[in-house]
Amino acid sequence: MTEVEKMLAGEVYDYSDPEALELNLRAHERMERLNGTPYRDAEAYRAALRELIPDFPDSSFLIAPFFCDFGFRTRVGEHVVINYNCTFLDGGGIEIGDHTLIGPCCRLLTPQHPLDYLERRKPIERGIGIRIGQDCWLGGGVTVCPGVSIGDRSIIAAGSVVVRDIPADSLAAGNPAVIKRKLRNGDE
Question: 132 burial class (0-12, 13-18, 19+ CB within 10 angstroms)?
Fold first, then answer.
């Protein structure tokens, strides 16, 4: 298995591998193009966005500046809004459901580094995917940690750090984020 194949499989991989580095460098070039393209030039902006995140829907919006590791590891649903200055470290894969709002300065972080400090000195990590359901709202400055799933229709309050899964129809807040209340009954 190549290092990139290991990354795609969610296994520990060497991020200093030339193929992995090349994918990251391409993403940086594409981010520079996107972040330097006038938003008013919708056609050029969409083209730059799709170079970075293939299959980005016409009904969804991403407002630059935007930062990511790879771009192609992010999947965005229909009618999604990703606001200014977000960072998606997407080596482990990020999925965002339809009609979801991502506030400014949010960070979705999939890399998990080794716990052992000697192992952590090596250029290795494992990406653990993040899934955000449909109709969610992440307030400004939310951080979502590796492996977290946020259920449909949930709201994460501004500034929260999500370290555990949040079930559907929940309002969560804090560091670490905890469920403050349910938003609707299951029979609605």
Answer: buried
